[in-house]
Amino acid sequence: MCRIADTIEDHPALGAADKRRLLAQWVAVLEGLAAAAPLCGELAGLAAPLPAGERALLSAVGRVLAGYQALSPEARARIAHCVRVMSAGMAYFQAQAGPQGLAEARLFDRYCYHVAGIVGETLTGLWLADGSLPAAHGAELMRLAPSFGQGLQMVNVLRDVPADRERGVCWLPRDVFAGDPEALLRPGDALGRAGLAHLVAQAHGHLRNGLLYTLLLPRRAVALRRFCAWALLTAAANLQRIWQAGPGYDRRAARIDRVCLYRCLLLGALAAGGRRRLRWAFEREAAGLPAAVPVSVDRRHRAIQAWFAAAG
After folding, report:
1. For FRET with 240, which of 76, 146, 207, 283 sits at 20 to 30 Å CA-CA?
2. Any idea which fold 96-311 has?
């Protein structure tokens, strides 16, 4: 559901107005307020210029909706809320998209919440609702979930800087780079290195909250632990790759290779059943990163909620 919204947001042939319209239609379909067939047909017609995976997704929206309708009413309500928040954020930030980057780190935080933090909250809510997780840790897991999501999204943003530049978009906060996010694209640039160190340390802090989140999952939920461990370890390894590459990195330098990916998958599978093993695996992949910036989950959550209230 979220990937369909993301594919609409990133579609190279759509303008901001069309993206807002399609995102609003997608939410209306999920909430039962609009017929699905017209949207399915339009999205299928937009699939041609996209990569193979996204073409397949937009061509199969009807099948995705059939699976969605088979879920419980509570699950559908949670997912629809998630896509609504995500789509509202995407529409808002599309108006600010451009090569200049976002004005400040607070906006970057909010962007990450809309496209990733809400997903963490939704998954956690679904797992708690169906009994996969004990209610005793529910409040703490819900507090940590948006931070875990932000850590993953920050890695994605940093990894995709070269690709985003090619399509004229930048999601980096300008204030972190003294108003010049292009510094990150200049090899050996001191300002780029300082800004990168700041963002990598922040992402490292969010990923450590993700580690705490994963360690809170009970042993009986080993499949969920493994799911989270895979995301956590691959993100830490990717962040390490970006940090080592430094300013001016290209697409290849910013991505982990197949050998590293398989190592993280194997480590995640082996470590998911034990807390010490999982800590060891995370420290292994995060070794050498700048010291993590501690993230105040409560303060950040209050700031985001205040912004939502002010923005309506």
Report:
1. 146
2. Farnesyl Diphosphate Synthase (1.10.600)
